[in-house]
Amino acid sequence: MTAIAALPTASARPVPWLRLAWVVWRRYRTMLIATVGALAAIAVYLVVTGEQMRSSYDAATACRPIDSTACMYKFNLFHNSYAQPGLIGAVLMFLPAIIGSFAGAPLLSRELETGTFRYAWTQGAGRMRWATAILVSGAVGVAAIMAAFGALITWRNQPLLDSGFTPRLHQTIFPETGIAAAGWALVGFAVGVLAGLLWRRVVPAIVTAFAACFGLEYLGATYRSHYLTPLTTTSLDQPLKSLTISQWWTKGGVRVSSDQVTSALGAVGAQFNASGGKITSAAAGSSNGAGGTSIDPTQYLIQHGYAQVTSYQPDSRYWPLQWIEFGWLTALALALLGIAFWLLRRRPA
Amino acid sequence: MNVIETRDLGRRYGSKWALRDCTLAIPDGHLVALVGPNGAGKSTLLNLVVGLTPPTEGSVEVLGGATAGSVAALDGIAFVAQDMPLYRHLSVADMLHLTSNLNLRFDTVYARRRLDDLGIDHKQKAGKLSGGQQAQLALTLGLARHPRLLVLDEPTAPLDPVARHDFMATVLTSMADDGVSVVLSSHMLAELERVTDYLVLIGQGRVRLNDEVDDLLATHRLVSAATPDRLSGLDGEVIESSTMGAQTHQLIRLASPDAPLPLDCEARPVGLEELALAYLRESAPALALSAVGATR
Do residues B289 and B206 touch, judged by C-beta distance below 8 A? Predict the structure, then answer.
């Protein structure tokens, strides 16, 4: 038997990243192709409807004279066909986080579930280098893919944004466009990776990651409009393309309660809806019928010293808000991945 | 130089110790058999050696001083885990390519030639190979790294006798050609007897034997006498004692190979399997005692 020579120091150098990159590509190219394929199918739908939306919008804007019945009809047609986000809007809203979870959850859990980690972690590269190569390329890849997909959604919705029917700050558009899309993909990925490491099984990891992402989406939808203090206006015309947050009434600069507004409106028989800040004139119809006089309740209130205040986020804040959302999502994703690395280093077989 | 050296090594999972107080020194150049009853901590010890599991207490060094799991240790040790984990959906050629990219050294020529000799189709998916072929592929991936230590965890358990024979033949060839040291855990005592030259026996989570097989065979005797008191003066440790009819049989570990035996008893040498079985049986009832100790 040959005796073992002293440890050669040359062999203590780590395996180059480029080789690990090849490993990642070979291991996950099928998954990558499947994901890109699925997204391509959705992309085709977006391109087709985007083109339809453009021709419908162009037909409406090219129409002359602009206030003719025919042109109003064209605008109505455009609005009725495309302004409602519908099911696809809801799906698109969650897509970055869902794709991120799908990509992240199996990475560690499949190795742990099938036992191949005993192969992978005992090769010369070692587990931390192996995991770094996989997780970094996975995170960057999924973020880049979803950011590109977000750009496509922005392009598709451009007529809606131009027309002012739907602001790009709207919760069905904001999270899946711009860099927020990359942020949501990163968070979904990180949650999936960590869940996979904790569960050690693919399916529970994906389910957990989905649940966590829905919770985070809810948080985002709730607090997004307050990342920056909303602006207020007493003008009845909302600034173009802005996102309305809430409306209320003031008198002499002091906010008045809905009861006070309602009692003030009692004279004209209208009702104030506290939650929406809107005036419903269901009762006004009957008073009109009885008295035969037509009074606009809003004008009535304004004439009596009230002012309607609207809080909103202007369209110009789209990018600042995007960066804020991207910032907290990325910080959260990095923290989760940090925990995953910490656990992975200590994890016994 | 020792390929494996542990000191007071212990690993606990939750509140249960899988291995404790394990102090070992295995010199290089051997085919080491690691035996022990189920749950004795064989896999835990191997996982500690290859760096898959960090120790709870104590230390484990490999290849003459490298910390288990360090870059140098990973580079010099090839591990074939229980049930031969492979990426089932990857082809044999891809597994070769993958392993070559995960290591600094990988002898692709050697690996291809060996697989050709075994008649394994490179385009075949790893998951579609027979059990024996999967074991050979896993072993080839390890050997092509030209490791200095090959660690095999229950490698032959899922194999049929022919595949088992072929597998061990490959291991022995690489030992002769490359001088690689081998540590393997197994239940197949009879089969190990022919190939192993170093025995580590773990019972109750601690090391019972850690010797070259030749030394073990030289110091163990099965002695028989008409009455037990005739054997009381022996210079050695009684490993196992049984009474059959009028005769008392004892497996004795002598203090030295030439220790004197009583004149009026029969003494005969024992085989490795018989020897190991005696130690394994001795460990078994004590397991209950150690469990009581653990809960206390």
Answer: no
